Amino acid sequence: MQPLHLYNTLSRKKELFEPLNAPYVGMYVCGPTVYNYVHLGNVRTFLTFDTLYRYLTFIGYKVRYVRNLTDVGHLVGDGDEGEDKIGRMAKLEKVEPMEIVQRFTNDFHTVMAQFNTFPPSIEPTATGHMVEQIEAVQALLSKELAYESNGSVYFDIETYNQRGGNYGKLSGRILEDLLNDTRELDGQSEKRNPLDFAIWKRAAPEHIMRWNSPWGEGFPGWHLECTCMSTKYLGKQFDIHGGGMDLKFPHHECEIAQGDGLTGHDPVRYWMHSNMLTVNGQKMSKSLGNSFLPSELFAGSHYLLEQAYSPMTVRFFMLQSHYRSTLDFSNDALKAAQKGYRRLANGLRVIKSMSYKAGEGNEDETKQQDIRQAIQQFYEAMNDDLNTAVGIAQLFTLLKYINMLYLNQLQASVLGEEVFNLLKESFITFMQDVLGLKEEGTDNQPILEGLLTLYREYKDQRQYDKVDQIRSYFKAQGLAIKDMKHQIDWAYEE
């Protein structure tokens, strides 16, 4: 079985994953700018790296996962001019900027919990690392890789490249082409080069969020924040840096230049990027009216949605595609994902309650080999740049045997105790621990068991009106009653 390989955006190929200090792994993921509700594009990114975090931990690595919160410095339009996104929202609502930050940080954590993602090891904020950012600006000035202009400080790309840097290497953009495509904008006249980016910005009189610095009152550049927070907790060079494809340029490109400028080498070994979302084949955007929030998905309250979709359905849907491929939201695709998730959830529920029982029937080597092969292929899929789509296909192979055992079409003794236990342990672990797919709606299990007891009694007594009432209740909960020859049970309705 091949070891873990990850696609490195920097080299544009899959590479053998070799951490700097195995078994320790340092992973940094650009977190949200907490000025509004987290959108689904963000969710896909965080879900991708949650799955990577889970898998790395599962195969024995000790991972320090750092995911920041941007609470200052991210300007409207993502450039060096304009209002701070958080400050702008605070002005509109006539509240303190930190009220905006707190509200949307709380919402972000709620949504991440709904999608069953693990919290990061450290969740630093930009405002909590002002000292480190001012020190980094001073260091870049002392190396003459930055210059002050009217109270702002800019990174000098031309000097950086003259000293051996290669600005544009991550995104594949050529400096000359970038210069030709960059038109002179208001406020750019204070830059030596229109591509130079701010690492410290002078605060205009109307700017709410400001800090004292050697260059006057201002605030840090958005790109510098991630450089300072990642290196503070993971070192001057670390293993994995993740984010959405939209951050590749200029954000991550600038991080490389800053990190290299400060230390003399690339800050990151493996750059990883998740791809974008589309809706019915169109790019997801507020202006097109096809952008919906997680809460709208869960409630089915957006005009493009035909029904509500649960968090685990959406998680399963996202994992069905490779993280580097475009993912298209449509009702048909979501309904198919709902069916697929519920089939797996039913398998998860029943295999948890099964235990090996010796019985009649000789062990079947073909079936044993099929199970072992599916398990091995799950590992191979995950080791092939986190191919969750192929991994999920192997879960359905294992599910076939779980259902045969459940329906008494197969005796556990045919698999043998070792393979039965391997099947049970692998299915539960792959689904819950690695893919983060859990059962939903099991809080009322004692009530369901009680109703099933009544159902059996009413059926024996031929009180079919009451039998139908219980069936209707289960159906309203998205559940079905299974009348089988050897038992009566319930299942998630597929």
SS strand fraction = 5-15%
What Rg do the Cα atoms give? 27 Å
For the sheet with most strands, the description reads: 4 strands, parallel
CATH topology grouping of the largest domain: Rossmann fold
Spatial strand sequence of the major β-sheet: 4-3-9-10
Tally the structural domains. 3
Label the CATH architecture of the largest domain: 3-Layer(aba) Sandwich
User: Which structural class best describes the helix and strand composition?
Assistant: alpha/beta
Report the principal-axis shape. elongated
CATH superfamily of the largest domain: HUPs
- As a percent range, the share of helical residues equals 40-55%
Topology:
Blueprint (H helix, E strand, L loop, with lengths): L4 E4 L4 E4 L7 E6 L10 H19 L3 E6 L17 H9 L3 H18 L15 H13 L3 E4 L2 E4 L1 H6 L12 H7 L15 E6 L15 E3 L1 H13 L3 E7 L3 H16 L4 E7 L2 E3 L2 E2 L10 H6 L11 H9 L7 E3 L1 H23 L11 H19 L4 H19 L5 H4 L1 H18 L10 H16 L3 H13 L2 E5 L4 E5 L2
Parallel strand pairs: 3-4, 3-9, 9-10, 11-13
Antiparallel strand pairs: 1-2, 5-6, 6-7, 7-8, 11-12, 14-15
